[in-house]
Structure to design on (267 residues):
């Protein structure tokens, strides 16, 4: 057994936590999330190079939350998700215990928000150079070219909502897409309804996206929809001085109002 299994076994044995969300072996050699509730189940946990999923997407799921105190194997994206969820009053301090695997394989333990904030401050949390290049290409397009590009991408969407299920920031109990009185977003997968869904999704995540990329990874149609929310990171930072997922007490840029707010974006 390695350090992770021993640590989680001990946390479950002494009841510090009631469940631990980590990675395990799935079918056909794929990695999947597992939920260890007993010391014996802690032995099923693994950690290897392809354990990259942002497991924070499970933190607010009812089926997990009611199990008691949660421990989680958190990568940087998951730690940022915890910060963002804290700033949105979805989790309280000391409610989650996070373990992080250092590059040398040793473990770091976080039991409060402050320690996560301090750790994140010391890291480069930006998007990858490949993603930067794709955003640069999008920004170099004319408005018409960009419109055509996204419409072609959204045409592929079959409204499975895997992107919504995978996103740690999509936690509303009743999503606008599911409301049918009135029907805000058409149920069928067609051009107009798909555009409605993706514009609504991008606006709801503006300034809240922690650039984990899970939405794009979950998409069976390979739509790079994380780029839409990534594109909004810089404008929110420049306009409101806010970066998602870095502080537990950050104020969400689009939900606050000041009388002297700049209004030069209104045309
Ligand atoms: S929008 Fe996509 S990249 Fe952003 S937090 Fe949600 S899943 Fe992660
Ligand atoms: S995961 Fe892909 S296909 Fe499914 S709703 Fe999201 S964008 Fe559409």
């Amino acid at each position: 057994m390695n350090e992770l299994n021993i640590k989680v076994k001990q946390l479950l044995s002494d009841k510090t936590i009631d469940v631990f969300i980590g990675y395990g072996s799935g079918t056909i050699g794929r990695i999947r999330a597992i939920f260890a509730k007993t010391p014996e189940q802690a032995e099923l946990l693994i950690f290897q190079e392809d354990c990259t999923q942002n497991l924070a997407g499970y933190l607010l799921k009812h089926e997990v939350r009611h199990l008691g105190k949660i421990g989680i194997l958190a990568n940087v994206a998951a730690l940022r998700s915890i910060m963002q969820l804290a700033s949105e009053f979805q989790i309280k301090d000391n409610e989650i215990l996070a373990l992080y695997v250092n590059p040398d394989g040793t473990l770091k333990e976080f039991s409060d928000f402050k320690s996560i904030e301090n750790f994140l401050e010391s890291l480069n949390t930006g998007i990858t150079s490949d993603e930067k290049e794709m955003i640069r290409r999008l920004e170099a397009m004319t408005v018409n070219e960009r419109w055509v590009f996204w419409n072609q991408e959204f045409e592929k969407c079959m409204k499975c909502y895997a992107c919504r299920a995978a996103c740690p920031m999509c936690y509303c109990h009743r999503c606008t897409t599911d409301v049918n009185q009135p029907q805000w977003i058409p149920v069928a997968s067609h051009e107009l309804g798909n555009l409605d869904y993706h514009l609504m999704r991008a606006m709801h995540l503006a300034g809240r996206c922690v650039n984990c990329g899970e939405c794009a990874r979950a998409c069976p149609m390979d739509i790079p929809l994380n780029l839409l929310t990534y594109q909004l990171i810089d404008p929110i930072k420049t306009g409101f001085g806010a970066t998602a997922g870095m502080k537990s007490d950050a104020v969400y840029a689009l939900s606050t109002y000041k009388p002297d707010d700049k209004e030069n974006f209104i045309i």
